[in-house]
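note to self: dont lose this again. the chain is below, predicted strucutre after it. 136 aa total, dont forget to put it in the shared folder this time
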Amino acid sequence: MLTSYHQKIIYSGTGRRKTSVARVNLIPGSGKLIINGLPGESYLQFSPNYLRISCLPLSILGLNKEYDIYVKAEGGGLTGQADAIRLGLARALCSINPENRTMLKSEGLLRRDARSKERKKYGLRKARKAPQYSKR
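---
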């Protein structure tokens, strides 16, 4: 989706993972990452793994310092949010240039990871963990 906001071109994409939802906006800029109003490094607790996962689509396309990334992330934990940011960023990059789609698709960055927590069943401790069996 393309919208003009104060003479700046904004590209947006939505990503989801587990119970997390991330709305990602890309603005041409210097490469800063802002998540929920905080710098991306401090929001993701300075974890190099979360930062690498979040910015993976940009690094694959070689656009690390081309766009500023503004994210509104909600729900879940940091792992789900980092993966949701990655999907939203990949979708936003596809809206910028359709040629980006082939490279991102071959890396598997446009596929939503559908795994989520399985519900607990009655008579069990968790989704599949049963209480210890007693013969007598």
